[in-house]
Amino acid sequence: MIRRLTRAAVASPLASASMAAILGVAIACACGTTAASPPTEVPACTSLAACCGSAGAGQAVCASIVASNVAATCSTELASLEAMGACGSTGTGTGTSTGSASGCSALAACCKAMTGSSAAQCDTIVGQGVATTCTAELTVYEAAGSCGKTTSSSGTLTSSSMSSSTSGLDAGMPSGFGPGDGGPCTGPVGGFPSPSCDPSDEMACSASIPSGCTLSPKCGNPSTCEPFVTNPTTGVESFRMRLLNITAPSSLSNQVVQGSVVTAAVDLPADAGSCGENGSGTFNWLIQVDTTTHTVKTGGAPPSSDPFGLGYCFTNATVAGTAVAPTVLGATFTGTTFSTASGTTTLNMPIFVTGGGAVVLPLAGASFNDVTVSDSGNCIGAVNNGSIVPSSSGVCTDSNPTGQDSCSRWHTAGTIGAHMSLAAADQIPVVTLGNESLCVLLTGQNNGSGKCPTAALTAGDYCSTTKAPGGCGDSMWFSAEFAASAVNITAGAGITLCGG
Fold first, then answer.
1. Does residue 228 form part of some domain?
2. Average pLDDT, stretch 216-241?
């Protein structure tokens, strides 16, 4: 089960909110009787969604926070907007200037770490001088990692260059995985990032699972990768990604999209089992490795009502107007490490979302690179539960969902690369953005009718005909690193989206 995808660079929350909006595309979900319905949007996020339209320059950030469907984050942002006088409120802040509001002084320091539209929005809030608004907004940015801070295992905010008295470099690190440097994981266009790149410096990891957090036995061995089942010693090994860390393109690899959208969708819901996660479980990337035939089958899956027992099935249906099915790739093995040939067809990867929405990523020529299977065929990468912390709601979750800065929960051991045709992306509408296409969101160019102008269809960083960077520019390169753990993969009998 893939646990984590790595981001390549930090982009502004405003620029990254487009992906969050993509994930609001509404479709009819024919999930069958045994497939789980996506989680219901929490009340705080429903209230925030109604307010986003009056958030001015912050509408994109607001939309990305709603998409995260995390009550505490939505409540904080809602309070921030109401204090500014948005949402029909008259405002409650008392600060009059950045000099007299300590919260605004701290936010001003945070603004300096941002660029582009994100920095402009941040400076606007500081300029209003409302202490309560600044403090609330600072909390949101820090939670997203935009200020170079994250939450430590003790529940306090700490700089990425500091360690707490109960944590430190390499504390609780899985065997065989060293610390990162606190910087982004990147790879060349047309290539792959390091399969084990760690964007964290591991300076705020607890040496063990924190007090107050108990993992359910059904989550699997917490000292390896929490495999839900035991794979056979020979034949087919089945996995679900637990982390997908996107390194390209920049429109998908930034920190807000990684934490609030990708990781939040890959992580399982808290009510699915106490596994240190509090996501939606709506982004399910499956991998089946056949060590006998030397092939790898991969594709997406709908949400599961029982990840531990029933498991998952490959989506084989039309999703949001696009045919979705798994693909099979030839593989070369060196010991327990494999790489695959590039796919000859497009792997359409569905991301199902809260409320029944979906978006399909058209991944052409997909291939895996340097994927190492460990723990007797049950793991790709490893987990470090020293990164989880208890929350006010009593749910223990990852203190650093973007994997950036201080403590990575998942340690990756494989990469994937593909290219996304801009022409194909231009045929994928995003209903919640007035039917703007995925191409518009990837390139930032709009012909005024919700599609990319002709010139934008060759404004990519990769050429599909030469299979090389630049050139005709008809595609965008996609790359990511991941961790995964063993799950049960079935034929999906009775599940409409799996062809059952």
1. yes
2. 94
pLDDT digits (tens, 9 = 90+) for 399-443: 766 655 577 889 999 999 999 999 999 998 765 566 788 898 899
Residue 73: both structure tokens together: 């984050």
Question: Are 215 and 222 contacting, i.e. CB atoms less than 8 angstroms apart?
Answer: yes
Within a domain: residue 280?
yes
Question: What does the alpha-carbon distance between residue 423 and residue 452 come to, in Å, rounded to a whole number?
Answer: 9
- Asked if residue 158 is part of any domain, the answer here is no
Locate 391 and state its tokens.
């929350």
> C-alpha distances in angstroms, 69 versus 45, 148, 189?
6, 23, 32
What does 417-450 look like in DSSP terms, one character per residue?
Answer: EEEEEHHHHTTSEEGGGTTEEHHHHHH----SSS
pTM, entire model: 0.69
**Among 420, 463, 49, residue whose Cα is nearest residue 251:** 420
**CA nearest neighbour of 203 among 179, 229, 236:** 179
> What would you report as the CA-atom Rg of the chain, rounded to the nearest whole angstrom?
21
pLDDT tens string 155-181: 222 222 222 222 333 334 455 555 555
Q: How many CB atoms lie within 10 A of CB 331?
A: 19
User: Cα(380)–Cα(245) distance, rounded to whole angstroms?
Assistant: 14
Q: Say what percent of the chain tops pLDDT 90.
A: 40
Residues near 103 by beta carbon (within 8 Å), at least 6 away in sequence: 95, 131, 132, 133, 134, 135, 138
Contact by Cβ (8 Å): 380, 374:
yes
Task: Please write the tens of the pLDDT for every residue from 268-293.
Answer: 988 766 788 888 999 999 999 999 99
Q: Looking at residue 110, what is its pLDDT?
A: 79
Task: List C-alpha distances in Å: 158 to 7, 138, 407.
Answer: 21, 14, 11
Domain enclosing residue 188, as ranges? 3-40+166-498
Which of 221, 372, 284, 256 lies closest to 19, judged by CA?
256
Going from the C-alpha of 479 to that of each of 260, 333, 396, 443, the distances in angstroms are 19, 21, 30, 17
Q: What is the pLDDT of residue 77?
A: 67
In a domain, 153, yes or no: no
